Amino acid sequence: MSTASALAALPAGLVWQGRTFAHQAGPVLPTGHAALDAELPGGGWPGTAMTELLGDQPGVGELSLLLPLLCRPASSRWQVWIAPPRIPYAPALRMAGVDLASLLLITAPAAAEALWATRQALASASCSVVLAWLPQVDSAGLRRLQLAAEEGATPLFLFRPLAAARQPSPAPLRLALSAQGRALRIDLLKRRGPLAHAPVLLPLHAGSL
Amino acid sequence: MRAACKPQASTVLWLALILPELPLQVLVRGLTDPGLLAITESQPRPLVIAATPAARNRGIEIGQGVSSALAVIPELNLRPRTPAAERALVHEVATWAGAFASRISLDPPDCVLLEVAASLRLFGGLAALQQTLHAGLLQQGLLVHSACAPTPLAARWFARNQAACPQATEGTCATDWRAHLDALPLDVLADGSAVSPASLELLAGIGLRTLGEIRALPAAGLARRQAQAVTDTLSRAYGDTPDLRPEYAPPVNYLVQLGLLHPTIHTEPLLFAARRLFAGLASWLAARHAGIDHCRLSLLHERGPDTVLDILTGTPSRDEARLNLLARERIAALRLSSPVEELRLETHGPRPLAARSNDLFGDSATERENATLLLDRLRARLGAGQVRQLSTFPDQRPEHAWRSMPFGEQSASPLLHVEPSVGAPRPLWLLPQARPLSHPASLCLVRGPERIEQGWWDGHDIRRDYYVASTSNDALWWIYRELVPRGDWYVQGYFG
Predict the structure, then answer these.
(1) Which of B41, B156, B180, B480 has the fewest Cβ atoms within 10 angstroms?
(2) Which is it for the CA torsion B208, B212, B216, B221, positive or negative?
(3) Any CB–CB contact under 8 A between B314 and chain A?
(4) Nearest CA to CA, how far is A20 from chain B (Å)?
(5) Å from B96 to nearest chain A CA?
(6) B447 contact A CB<8A
(7) What are the two backbone dihedrals, phi and then psi, of residue B423, each rounded to the nearest 5 degrees?
């Protein structure tokens, strides 16, 4: 019996092979970008976990990346933005199709308050998506956020500086965002699957420019 | 005899709740550790009438003089009795008990009577009901004794003698409750009745020890010896003559106060005490099938104005956990300058609120409730101004084309919506203040210009040419050039 056929005989999930994606626990939310979906385990954003988006530069398309997700209709559920570093521009969001009535903007003054608000939003299980900008969050805080996201079954997108890539994180998905030739370049730093060798390039602004 | 009392037992069943050591409980219920404390009363010489277990273990005895008590424990904390607070507490318990029985009656000084025959099925039987009552009161920091009997007096006496004859309290709703009553000691007669101490002395003097022995005496003989009250009381206790009790009507508005033995500025003791109050409030609301959308928790200081916390729940609710959470956020955010002596919880205008039935398919109601609860919590801790919503505003000037207002406030002009000109790019990020560009030459213009020339009517007129520009790092910025005075470049947003 060859190794391959012996492996195939085993029940699924017992042995994980390096070149296949891990089985994604919980629901998966399509990103709306086919090229990115193909690189993510389960084919989309983890629906009940924290996703880290690392980047130093504004204006590379970091919000446009999430727009398909933010435009999904979700009745009576909040879409919470916590401590964004700039003003989310309402006319642009409306043009993109985001429902402003369900968008809650939390302008927390202190880092501790922002972390608290993020955990509350996740734990309440009443948000369709939570976006948080927490530049200084320690490992314990990250672990709490990941747990809260799991418990509340709410996807969390955590925006942090690129330097945070060196810090270990319990997030199952970590992406570094930068720009390359008017396209968004996504380096998959961590995913539940094989190591990614090539970045994903998404020409997000191609339509509008 | 047994057959005769059985139908009565099934139609009326009184449950007596007795607050033992009421003068002490009034003071210690809001404390995690009351320490060495004794309650005194002048009768007319000041005597110790109640003491905490810690104090009793160190040798304090009930009935001891104050000076000898202080000789035993010099650091003993002595407090005078507070009859007004005791009365208020009995009322509070009666109000709270409204959730469990249809008829409540006060039986001063320390007893509340509940007519529970109709409630037994709902709460799963007598034992389960008693357990619920004890647990609920314990949550409010109160210890009670309870017992059941078909007559109020018998229930009260059984509860009072729970420690003395436990077998009497167990099977008291059984048919042989009269036999248990017969076994009660003579001195219970004075409890809650008009029997004078002189009559008791007379009965004890002729060698009687239990109620059963008195019942065996000829009634006419007792009446001749000025002991009419004894026979009257006994016939009411045994159910031979009706014992009518005034019904207790719960107050229309809820107001309770809880004094703190040790004034404090710390959060945890305050929260502990507040939890006691909310437990009572939740039950009062349940009894009225009502919910509140706001209540007021006042922290009373010895000097200076009260600290008033208005707790808003958004939607009518009687969820104790929710009220506790909201109070926790508010109290934790407080900076108290002087110690709190007393807590007062009041609420007006409860609104009808039906109990929510469980949904078979999904629970959208729970989800909606969670959504409002999240809002409440965020606003309670961060302040209403920090939880905001965005809207567009019909103005061509980019910095005036949006509004952000605290959640719940309506935007100034919700009727009119002007879409920006089709195809004109707008950035997802806007800078609070446009930033001058120091090296505009390093940028590469990708798209533009879009001329925006507006606002001459309100003094904030602009004349700008907007471009989308790409930086050396390939990021896209929204920049403009001022036309008057010509030449200055600014960045106003990022295409995030």
Answers:
(1) B41
(2) positive
(3) no
(4) 32
(5) 30
(6) yes
(7) 85, -15
Whether the domain at B2-36+76-237 and the domain at B254-380 fall into the same CATH topology: no
Q: Does a structural domain hold residue A45?
A: yes
How many residues does this entry show for chain B? 496
Interface of A with B in 83-112 (CB under 8 A): 86-96, 100-101, 103-109
Least CB-CB distance to B429: which of A89, A96, A116?
Answer: A89
Nearest CA in chain B to A105: B388
Low-confidence stretches of chain A (pLDDT beneath 50): none
Contact assessment for residue A158 and residue A149, using Cβ atoms and an 8 Å cutoff: no
| ipTM metric | 0.89
Residue A121 lies in a domain: yes
pTM of the model: 0.59
Q: Confirm or reject contact between A58 and chain B (CB < 8 A).
A: yes
Q: Kindly identify which residue of chain B lies nearest to residue A127, measuring between CA atoms.
A: B371
Residues in chain A: 209
In a domain, residue A7? The reply is no
- In this structure, is residue A20 part of a structural domain? no
CB contact (8 A) between residue A64 and residue B495: yes
Question: Under a CB-based contact definition with an 8 Å cutoff, are residues B195 and B229 in contact?
Answer: yes
Using CB atoms, pick whichever of B387, B402, B475 lies closest to residue A59: B475
Residue of B nearest to A183 (CA): B474
CATH number of B254-380: 3.30.1490.100
Helix, strand, coil percentages (3-state) for chain B, rounded to 5, are 35, 25, 35
Q: Identify the CATH number of the domain in which residue A170 sits.
A: 3.40.50.300
Measuring CA to CA, how many Å separate B319 from each of B174, B272, B285, B326? 37, 17, 9, 11
Cβ neighbours of residue B212 closer than 8 Å, sequence gap 6 or more: B181, B182, B183
Strands A78-82 and A103-106: parallel
CA-based nearest residue to B53, from B34, B29, B67, B68: B34
Interface contact flag, A61 B377, Cβ < 8 Å: no
Q: Encode pLDDT of A98-126 as tens digits.
A: 888 889 999 877 888 899 899 889 988 88
* CB-CB under 8 Å, B425 with A86: no
Predicted confidence (pLDDT) at residue B165 exceeds the cutoff of 60: no
- Which residues pair with residue B81 across a beta bridge? none
In chain A, which residue's Cα lies nearest the Cα of B406? A105
List, in sequence order, every beta strand (DSSP E) within B14-110: 14-18, 37-42, 46-51, 77-80, 103-107
Split at pLDDT 50, 70, 90, the class of B219 is confident
Among the partner residues A64, A77, A107, nearest to B496 by beta-carbon distance: A64
**Total domain count for chain A?**
1
Query: Range of A164's domain?
Result: 29-202
Spans of all domains in chain B: 2-36+76-237, 254-380, 416-494
CATH code of the domain made up of B2-36+76-237: 3.30.70.270
